[in-house]
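Quick one: co-fold with NAP.
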Amino acid sequence: MTTPTLPPTAQRAAQVPSVVLAGATGALGLLIAHHLRRRGATVRALVRAQSNTGAEAESLRLQGAEVVVVNYDSVADLTRACQGAGCVVSALNGLRPIIVDAQTRLLAAAVAAGVPRFIPSDFSADFSRLPEGSNRNFDLRREFQRHLDQAPIQATSILNGMFMDLLTGQAPVVLTGPRRVLYWGSADQPLDFTTLVNTADFTAAAALDATTPRYLRVAGEVASIRDLREAATAATGHRFRLLRAGSLGLLGTLIKVSKALAPAPDEVFPPWQGMQYLHNMLSGQAKLAGPLDNARYPDIRWTPVREVLARGQ
Ligand SMILES: NC(=O)c1ccc[n+]([C@@H]2O[C@H](COP(=O)([O-])OP(=O)(O)OC[C@H]3O[C@@H](n4cnc5c(N)ncnc54)[C@H](OP(=O)(O)O)[C@@H]3O)[C@@H](O)[C@H]2O)c1
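Sure, here it is.
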């Protein structure tokens, strides 16, 4: 009996891994798409109708991604979009309607389409050991995780700590004006930081790796508040000092007050949620446990905090 031989183009098509990427127009999603293409994958980017004509969708097309408009309320629509993929990656961002509801429909679609692997939109500190209520956004991720762990699909969560890029923007920790590093609790608690680019590159590599475990943990740098002070001093050439605002108990009280004064229930990252994130990290409860998986894809060079702070000058 002879084995049928595919024509060369069909052989190539059969070898190129295909990844479905939800949330591809987002900050992280665009970078994951870039790194998937760079690593030779076919990318099917799922976008909502209102995002289809935007600059981000255009940029995805220019990168060679197939942009597919989907209705996240329709499992049938999502199932069609998932056909033939080797992995579904979600970089969706939002609250319950997205992280729990839309991702659950995307998961059902991936299973129905026979996709073997799913990477949820976790991309965070380790939320698995946190008490319920200590971080609204992490509660939603644990809720989705319960659906994911019941589904007949191989799941991999990528845990990367805090996006290092936030240190020069939204996260009020390294204060360049007064040259202080602001913190609560202990200045010696190790904290995990990874850049968006490193997270995206690692996620792309993981999406193309059929052997990933349930969790992959990475950190571009593990740094304490004291280490951040050293990094800020080295990056700027100016001496930074520590500014301890109080205990973690005080930060907990500030979170309650801030939430009561400005609840912003529809905002994904209101100030009180950012403070919850800081509390989770500074308490050590969201610290990535066990050995890191940084070396899994040896081509990735991990950006240290000092480099990001120097860039933010
Ligand atoms: N570790 C950290 O420090 C950190 C910091 C920030 C974010 N993150 C995480 O990184 C992941 C991606 O975040 P991001 O900042 O890249 O997100 P983003 O830029 O805000 O948006 C991601 C995508 O979410 C989709 N989306 C928004 N609202 C939606 C809705 N109502 N229905 C369906 N899709 C909707 C959009 O898809 P369309 O293409 O359809 O518009 C958008 O492209 C999230 O898990 C987020 O929590 C982590």
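If it helps, The radius of gyration is 21 Å.
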